[in-house]
Design a protein that fits this description.
alpha+beta, 285 residues, 3 helices, 34% helix
Length: 285
Amino acid sequence: MIFGQTSFRRILLSRLLLVSVPVLLLGVYATYRKARSAFLETARQNLTESAIRKADSISQSADALRASLAAFSDAPSLKLSDPAAHQALAKQFSEQLPFQQACVQMVDLATYQLTANTCDRDRLGKVQPSFWLRQQARLLPDPQQIYVQFLPFSVSQKEPKAKNQLELLFSAPIYDGQGILRYALSVKASLLHREKTPPGSLEGNTIVISQAGVILAHPYPERLGQNIADMPDAERLQNVMGSAIAGEQRFLHLFSLQKTARSWWRAILPWPVPSAETAIASGWC
């Protein structure tokens, strides 16, 4: 009798286990799915907020520099043919700029010779008289006259020691006393700096891509200057770029932006740069 009761209990226990274990596993799986969804949603929200903040910061910095350059370009001493005065004012202006490694150059548009230079190298970019009207049309400086261009990528920019990225060249026209276009005053500034993002951070780093698909800023310097068309996820990257330019926001899982592991890509607001290609700032982690 005891043997029969023991067998019955074993059978009952085994049946209960057969029923309860799958239910328990389903519960664990459901909890995991719920936690994973919550984590991904938090990551999406953090990336979106972080990317928008960074894009706004870049845009505000560009607008501030554009306004400062326009105002400074109206200095009477810059209109004179006095290289010594040009150099003194360029040095003064570069010291006032709130950007790291910012420098100033002034070029004579007739001879293409520098009349002032606070940079560590010669001509930074191609500044042409065709950028502006030959005859001054307005008495007051206009920030919209500032010509903005992305600096070409050099070997030095790709070195790991280069901590500043997204280098832009802002150029303003200088008219002489007769209102004739004579000089161009240019400022090189890095509006985005390399970030130290803690491992596991949900804010991500920043990538800036031009409308032509060229990577202008990236956590890995060796990626600078590359085109997204040459990456494994080229089609998806181009799709998200198109969405961003159209003012849409998209969230994609990509595998080509990091050296290891997967990355999440958040396309955010397009950043219009007068006289330059549109840049898209995006967050990833």
